[in-house]
Amino acid sequence: MRSPLAFLLIVAVASAVPVPQEEAKYSRYIQFPDGDGILQNVDLEAKPNMQLLNEVERNPANNIYLLYTRRNPTSPQTLVMNNANSITSSNFNRNVPTVVVAHGWLSNQKTKLNGVLRDVYLKKSNVNVIILDWRRLAISDYVTAVRGVPAVGRGLGQFLDFVNRITGAPFNSMHLIGFSLGAHLVANAGRELRGRVARVTGLDPAGPLWNRNSGRIAPTDGVYVEAIHTDGGYIIGGLGIGAAVANADFFPNGGVSQPGCLLNVCNHNRAWEYFSATVSYNHLVGNQCDNTNQISSNNCRGRQFHMGNDDLRKFGTGLYRVNTGRSYPY
């Protein structure tokens, strides 16, 4: 079993050799962080919990949808699938954008990123923020969680379709944001809605078991799909997927290690930390790259494009390197 430091050193050495990112490999035993950033041992060849997976497939209503608005910025209202009154009697406003945030593995509604993203959005503008708590699956072992993510994502898509039918809130005013496993989850929600949501943003989409997984985030999951890669790997995979998966893929500081970070967990979390800063300041600008060699050597000279932000009409394609600072707002 590798220690966190050993894992860090292997990834750091691997990052010095710029080979195609799809070739990143994982050993059977890895360590992956929970919602508190504590590394947990994972066996990538473990047998999934089929009983739980069957339940998740049958009942997407296991998801918890918590609504925050400027009228209730800290006390959520629970929206319930197929319960129209839970939505019509809430503060949900069909005339403003809707932002959905999905956490990662071994996490829940109280995970730090949820509160941070909620607060920056509500401070910036009048929006509906829906925090998706999918703990029923997220607290299972990693292999089971990976297998169940597409079903949970489809459930989120069905919920948003219900919201659309009840309130008329258009899909082109919806932005789905997910971190780690949550990135693949919201992508599947967008897929369920046939790519009609305005934006899907994957914040360091999880890497282990996703390299050739048909359920992973893809460019067709929304009108515009963006991924921010902060802990990928070129030979040995990082916590995040190192491959381009979206319309526009951003690789801050090369996409492997981040300024001010010593461990992979810190690199991984930088994705949502960078994103939250861009909602407030829209200040992180990348240069387009022709290939992964340019990304790793910091030699991208193409057109400029803003990373992150809350623009629902944003669109772009390609690979981009963004150079950041060590501390907020980076």
Automatic annotation (TrEMBL):
GO terms for biological process: lipid catabolic process. It holds the Pfam family Lipase. GO terms for molecular function: lipase activity; serine hydrolase activity. It is found in: Secreted. GO terms for cellular component: extracellular space. The keyword Transmembrane helix does not apply. It comes from the Eukaryota. The keyword Cell division does not apply. Residues 60-302 form the Lipase domain. Residues 1-16 form the signal peptide. Gene3D superfamilies: alpha/beta hydrolase. PANTHER family: GH15759P-RELATED, LIPASE. This is Lipase domain-containing protein.
